[in-house]
Design brief:
Blueprint: H1 2-8, E1 16-21, E2 26-31, H2 34-39, H3 42-45, H4 50-53, H5 63-70, E3 74-81, E4 89-100, E5 103-112, H6 126-141, H7 162-174, E6 181-184, H8 191-200, E7 209-213, H9 219-227, H10 243-246, E8 251-255, H11 265-274, E9 276-278, E10 285-287, E11 291-296, H12 300-305, H13 311-317, E12 320-323, H14 332-349, E13 355-356, H15 358-366, H16 372-386, E14 393-394, H17 396-403, H18 407-412, H19 422-427, H20 433-451, H21 456-463, H22 467-476
Parallel strand pairs: 6-11, 6-12, 7-8, 8-11, 13-14
Antiparallel strand pairs: 1-2, 1-5, 3-4, 4-5, 9-10
Helix pairs in contact: 11-13, 14-16, 16-17, 20-21, 21-22
Amino acid sequence: MEDLKRLFKDIGYIEGITIINIEGEILFSAKFNNKMNEQVQNYEVVGKKFLDVYENLDENNSTTYRAMRYGIPVYTENQELVSKDRKPIKITSLSVPIKSGGSIVGAIDLSVTPNDDDITTSDVDIKEIKDEILYAYNKVNNLHRGDDRAIYTVDDIQTCDRGMLELKSNIEKYARTDLPVLIFGETGTGKELVAHSLHNMSDRADKPFVVQNCSSIPANLIESILFGTSKGAFTGAVDNVGLLELADGGTLFLDEINSMPIELQPKILRVLQDGTFRRVGGKDVQHVDVRIVSSTNEPLEKAIGEGRFRSDLYYRLSVLMLNIPPLRERKKDISLLTNFFIGKYNSVFNKNVHKVSNRVYNALAEHPMNGNVRELENIIASAVCMADDNEEILKFKHVKPRIACECVPKIAEKPQDIQVSAEANAEVQDRSLNKSVSEFEKQLIEKALKEAEGNITKAAQLLDVPRQTLGRKAKEYGLV
């Protein structure tokens, strides 16, 4: 939200909202000032193709199409809109992709026009159209893409690290089988990229590739989403195909399998054993030919020990295993990935950065990269976005805002807020570095949770780390 405020600062109010689906059909459109309404009326465009309405745009210069292509928000200033028989106008636009089940299904575009005394705002109350916006957003967000497919291949895994090169070799070997594969890696290491690559190298490459994050939906809904429902199973239930049936013949990727409810795990085990299941509320046995690929960001042995995961399911899922090393263990990849992401975001933001200062490389190498490749990509995306149009060198000033926000330095600015116990200091000489760091990390988390009165979301904001990461670490240290 802060980035949004900064981007639109001194430009104007949000005066237009457009939502399109992956086919480019306009599902919703609202223009809030007279100048934009002169360009095209809201009711005229719903149901039409976006590129048919704005005749000067195409898939390469439209922010909405670029957002769907790259899977990230795309921002541009002074984008010209031209409709047939209408006066052209210029807008500043931010387009954000909409994802469902790991696939991009559309985009929402927020537009403003530059501050202009001649522009008058239409007499429209945003609250009156809130329900329409939500309806359109949900409509596109719940769309099922009939062409579920894996986008990435093994060639998209950018690396010069020996361990990662070995992983790529194993992907090729494992792709020749139909055995289940368990992918282990910290958050942000690229587990879904590996799953895509595995599917695309297999004989199932032309079949569906269906993705479901097990932690992103409530426990009481995941069963019906995976297995489908039968009419009459509960009030309002209809015959509905689940993800297993949608993935028939292809691959079902269960991301963060460690978050799957324990009571649902025996049903997944049965699918692995004989390819059969029943829909929720159904009596008929369904048969599917699906390869199960799963991932976890924590050792499943730990979840088994805590009673959160079945050992028999673990052994079925982990016939083949792929371990993705964290970015901090493959420093050579940082410079390679930095240049790769610069090229990517040069295209997104229309910049011309093609050099990187040594100070930037050194800073990135020293940065903890707790968010791994995803964090590095976010740092570079932000840096390229903030670089001036004529800047050719990525400098430390561009990456500093993201690197300087690490949780430890941020809290350490107020030494009185951190009081490491004397016992911990006395023991440090007799303990390994990892244990000492863990003890320090535990005390930081404990302090943040105390200040946040036990609220993990607020504590995560204080420490500037993802809520999921803090929750996992707090459990590891027995703090929740």
